[in-house]
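Run log, item B.
One chain of 331 residues. Sequence copied directly from the ordering sheet:
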Amino acid sequence: MENTPEVKPAPKLFPLIVERLRSQNYSNRTEEAYIQWIKRFILFHDKRHPRDMGTAEIEAFLNHLAVEKKVAASTQSQAKSALLFLYDEVLERNLPKLENLTKLPAKKELPVVLSKQEVQAVLSGLEGTMWLMVSLLYGSGLRVMECLRLRVADIDFDRLEILVRDPQGYKNRTTLLPGTLVHPLKTHLASIEALHAEDLSKGLGEVWMPEGLAKRYPNAGKDWQWQYVFPSSRLSVAQQSGGVYRHHADEKPIQRAVKNVAKQLGIKKTVTPNTLRHSFATHLLEGGHDLQTVQRLLGHANEANTKVYAQLVNTGGSGVSSPLDVIKPIV
């Protein structure tokens, strides 16, 4: 009698999705977003398994987001990317082209920018580590998560440069470190180094390392140079490994702080941490720096993304002075 080959059960879907995302070095934020979109897709179709669905179901879900939920174009695009990743990379199915999508026009709104006086007022309303982080957003043109993910090794005080690491490791860039932040940053790092030493004395002190760096430097997780510049005040346990790490600080406090100080100052604009980055770019262009330099510092792959700031470099609404401002008043 022939032995019947053992039939192994198919791996559970979501652990497999997480494994594929991490093997391709997707960021934690992207991982969380993709997982949520895939869950919403499954729930929308009454908990059917994705392998039993395809192009028609994807189009129905994405059109539902556009027509009934009225989401932004970027939101629909992210949901689409999550589902294509699911079918291309996890289920390994080549789907026909999505030809029946209700495509949303991308909003072409100009970014909110603060004047130099408003930036100074915002910074004056902050103190300590919060002031330092927001100063880096404006002084170096960092995104919030880029600031929070900075490692000690990324700061070059001699060259006045900051290495900004792409989470996937493909688009690292350098930007400038303001000279005025050298002393405050060194003082801050001294206190962080003391915290790290205390963690080490307790048998802790390890930081999460991207997969590529972990393979290259397998024992570097406890080294001072790889610690976060802005670490969390609390330790956390990694779900997949059970390891205890001190992760970087959370973005929510910095978002609240910037919003609250702008409100207290009476600034009648929608001010977020990214407003400081937009202001960095606009003020550099106003100072005479060329578009290519600003594009490189911001890390924009497309020059068109940087050109939007050129529209904000003007006087008044159209870059011209009102004739009322040049005539002599009647006495």
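Observations after the first pass:
- The first strand starts at residue 155 and ends at 156.
- Strands lie at 155-156, 161-164, 173-176, 236-237, 244-245.
Flagged for discussion on Thursday.
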